[in-house]
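Might I ask for a little of your time on a matter of protein folding? The record follows directly beneath this note:
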Amino acid sequence: MKSMKPISIETRGGIRHIGPGYPSFIVAELSGNHSQSYKTACKIIDAIADTGADAVKLQTYTADTMTIDSDKKYFKLTGSKLWKGETLYGLYKKASTPWDWHPRLKSYAEKRGLVFFSTPFDNTAVDFLKKMNVPLYKVASYELTDTPLLQKIASTKKPVILSRGMASIKEIGLAINTLRKYGTRQIAVLHCISSYPTDPKDMNLRTIPDIMSRFRVISGLSDHSITNNAAIASIALGASIIEKHITLNRHDKGVDSKFSLEPHEFKDLVKAVRETENALGKIHYATTLSEINDKLYRRSLFITKSIRKGEKFTKNNTRIIRPGYGLAPRYFSMVIGKKAKKNIERGTPLTRRLILSK
């Protein structure tokens, strides 16, 4: 696979590149876990910064921009374990982040060294975030098929991260083509399972490299499982972006707390991802610095029974043993039958200078 151009975003600290060959972009999703407390939102941002994550992501909507206030059966959640019985309007009202918080949270996050961006859910949210000059946009899996919204986001010409969620290959292709047609040139598509929490057996992480090769875009994982295993494994499959929810305490009443990581768990995730990246390294067959001394403990030819000058090397007085100070084992058959250049004591590594040339 040919290397893909990285996504480049403008941050307070300069240009940040996202893609193969660069450290994974680790995003902590704040979502509605602030439980309508600005103070809690700031505490979560502090916790995110302390984990070593790269970015904090919000969701920009109101209950009225998402749906209508109705308790008809169409608007009630029935299949969800977490939110069963709630109306869409009620859930979104409880989970939304007040818009007047956004600029303050952006400033707070940037002061803590974090990239700040959000997921807009309608045109007014796109306009609002554009005025805030966010460096990139996220498209939620449920909105991937909202073509007019994609057109609006693309018109900002900022990089876009899509979560594929339930989308088919055809739908992903249409979303990518729409973004490109209307102005977006830098696109990432995250593999994502839209179930909360996600069962590991449903993850199908091998989709990540397929997304990269099939659509020629940077890929990653939006992970709703409650452990770090899938996210860490995704790095080995080529993920350049990891997104997971964070909460101060999983037992809090935050709408997404039950499938979110607590700060210490998120910190463990960041550490494990960085260690995995270092371990993957690059294609490399040469001896590493740490292995140089260990080469001495390979096998080599040694004199195992003292012999006199002119005496032949035989299988009785010459063996392939550790350590590696003598000739390599591949020379054993060539040495047997040749004569010693001088007296050689038992335990001496056999080198060329000890062998008569004729």
Observations:
- Residues 289-354 form a domain with the Type Iii Antifreeze Protein Isoform Hplc 12 fold (CATH 3.90.1210.10).
